[in-house]
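tokens incoming
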């Protein structure tokens, strides 16, 4: 596996493959890799000839400096995992490499930018799309893989691809969960033993919404799910909502297309998100 730190070296390495019309895939990550990330790599391997995994903790998408500071960075462990799954290239640039000079980034991501995560983490999706565009420019991928775990992120990246009319295919991959249902996340390592137990209410409330979507009214679904979460100690709910997956606006009718339940909550000191497709 190639370990590359600069855009120039990455472009040089990939050029040979691109000259031969080989298909290049990109899997952007912030590291602290787990089985969720590896599922993206495996999916990429099935659809491309060369798989590049980037590991970059992008400062511009963090709204809380403490969150950025404590973000886990187990690089040796990450490299070992990527080698084991047969990833071809890991791109691990410095902050200076990705942001050599201060820059303004403000693109139109549509009204959904300001909903849900966008409301709680102001400017988050400008930062996300800023770094993903830079990674696309560095790799020039045919296809890029993202997790449905970050549902709104997939939508925002789709909008960014449309905004610039980029020739990149975007693939959204299913959420990988622990055996008991907790969605895998790099932030789960911050959960204490009791947080870890309490955090299960997120996936449980989503499963409740999915299992009862046909039988219960939207009002009942939402109120019961919210009550379940609010009754769990150590969990502070930011939102539990059922939206149209294209607009992220709450649905008024269960027959609306692409319904999805999304939840975000602070469990102890750790903020977690999760979602479930209901259609
Ligand atoms: P992150 O390192 O958290 O920025 O995540 C990198 C990519 O992995 C994103 O596209 C995430 O949506 C995806 N991802 C994170 N957790 C999971 C999971 N549990 N299952 C599937 N994909 C995931």
């Amino acid at each position: 596996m190639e370990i590359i730190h600069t855009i120039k070296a990455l472009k040089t390495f990939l050029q040979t493959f691109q000259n031969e019309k080989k298909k290049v895939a990109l899997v952007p990550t912030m590291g602290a890799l787990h089985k969720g990330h590896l599922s993206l790599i495996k999916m990429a391997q099935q659809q491309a000839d060369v798989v590049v995994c980037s590991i970059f903790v992008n400062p511009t998408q963090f709204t809380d400096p403490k969150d950025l500071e404590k973000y886990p960075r187990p690089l040796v462990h990450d490299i070992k995992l990527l080698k084991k799954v047969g990833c071809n290239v890991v791109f691990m640039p410095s902050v200076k490499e990705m942001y050599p000079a201060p820059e303004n980034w403000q693109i139109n991501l549509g009204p959904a930018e300001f909903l849900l995560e966008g409301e709680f983490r102001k400017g988050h999706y400008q930062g996300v799309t800023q770094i993903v565009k830079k990674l696309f420019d560095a790799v020039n991928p045919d296809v890029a893989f993202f997790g449905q775990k970050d549902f709104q992120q997939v939508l925002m990246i789709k909008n960014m691809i449309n905004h610039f009319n980029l020739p990149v295919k975007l693939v959204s991959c299913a959420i990988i969960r622990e055996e008991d249902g907790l969605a895998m996340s790099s932030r789960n390592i911050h959960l204490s033993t009791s947080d870890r137990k309490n955090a299960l209410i997120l996936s449980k409330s989503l499963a409740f919404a999915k299992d009862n979507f046909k039988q219960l009214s939207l009002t009942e679904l939402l109120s019961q799910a919210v009550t379940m979460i609010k009754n769990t100690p150590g969990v502070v709910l930011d939102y539990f909502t059922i939206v149209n997956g294209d607009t992220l606006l709450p649905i008024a009718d269960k027959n609306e297309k692409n319904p999805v339940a999304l939840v975000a909550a602070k469990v102890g000191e750790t903020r977690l998100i999760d979602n479930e497709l209901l259609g």
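note: Residues 124-139 form the longest helix (16 residues).
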